[in-house]
Structures are given as structure tokens and as C-alpha cells.
Amino acid sequence: MGKATEYLQRTTSIMIITVLSKYMTVYAFNVGLARLLSPADYGDYKVPETFVSFGHQHPLVYATAIVPVMAVTVLAGSTFQYNNLIYMTILPRRIFYPILKLGLILILYAVVGKLTDSWAIMIAFTAILIVLFYLLVKVKQLGLLRFQKINNPTSPIIWLKISIPMMLLFFTTYL
Fold first, then answer.
1. What is the pLDDT of residues 146-161, one digit of tens each?
2. Which residues lie closer than 8 Å to 127 by C-beta, 6 or more apart?
3. Distance between CA 115 and CA 133 in Å, rounded?
4. Which residues, 6+ apart, have CB-to-CB distance to 116 below 8 Å?
């Protein structure tokens, strides 16, 4: 039993030293960074650092998955707007999406009896996916977008001639 106790004590000591070292290192880093940066710049650093440290544990991380899906939904809605089908731009996203979200939340609450922030976000994600799927089906049914091979693609040299002045203009504006 002596070797097992010795091993346990050594492992415990290593764990304590590791945790304390990590804490002191992170503390020293943050204090040093806070002194080097302005308060606004330090805040700009800490917000994404904290967000990244959430990984899969915080509902905010789930919510960010909605952003690209919502962007594609807006693009699909813009396709209808371009083709003078304004009602298809407004109704699915502005009317049906909130109604669908509310309905799904009420169904979940009736079935489970409680609602968490993670579930609410997942329901919103599901609802926007349903709306997006509906819009894409309608775009295909109405033949509003055609996917075909580009026979004469623009050469990379022409893209560079166009994009380099634009990048320089952006950089100059940024400065």
C-alpha cells in the first residue's frame, strides 16, 4: 500500500502544481496585457477569447451557427425580390419564421414541461432551416436560379487587375 499512497501523493502534487501554475500564468498574462492595451482594446481581445473558450458548453456558441444559415435565407429571399415576388421575400422570414419558432417552442414545452436556453436556440435553428428549405424548394420550383457551367471564365489576371486597386482603395480608406 506504500507505493500506491506514494503514487497518489505524487500525482496529487503534480495536479495542484499544474493548476496553480496555469492560474498564475493566465493571471500574469491578463494583468500584463491589460496594462499594455487600452481598456477598449483589452475588451476587444477578451470578448473573442472568452467566446472561443466556450467550445460546446455555452448556448451562445450554438447561436452563432444560425448566422450563416440566416444569411443564406436572406440570399434566397433576395432571389424572390429580384424576380418581383416581394411576398416570398417577406412572408417566410418575417411572418412564418417567428410563428414556426413559437409553435415549436410551445410543442416542446408541452411535451417536456420545461425550456432551456440551449433548446430555444436549437428550435430557432430548426425553424430557420425549415424556412430555408422551403425557400430553396420554391426557388427550384419556380426556376429562378439556374446552375450551369461557365463556358468562358474570367482569367485570374483580370481578377487581379480588378481586385488589387479595390484592395488598395480599401486599405487607404482604412488608414
1. 777 777 777 878 888 8
2. 97, 100, 101, 104
3. 25
4. 59
Which pLDDT score, from 0 to 100, does residue 39 have? 86
Residue with cell 408541452: 110
- Kind plus residue range of the DSSP H or E element containing 13: helix 2-36
The average pLDDT across 81-105 equals: 92
Interatomic CA distance for residues 56 and 65, integer angstroms: 12
What 3-state class would DSSP assign to 115? coil
- AA identity, residue 103: G
Q: How far is CA 76 from CA 96, 135, 141, in A?
A: 15, 6, 13
Strands (E), the chain: none
Top pLDDT among 134 and 146 is at 134
For residue 128, give the amino acid letter. I
d(CA 144, CA 137): 11
For the segment 119-124, the average pLDDT, to the nearest whole number, is: 90
- Rounded Cα distance between 102 and 118, Å, is 15
What pTM does this model have? 0.59
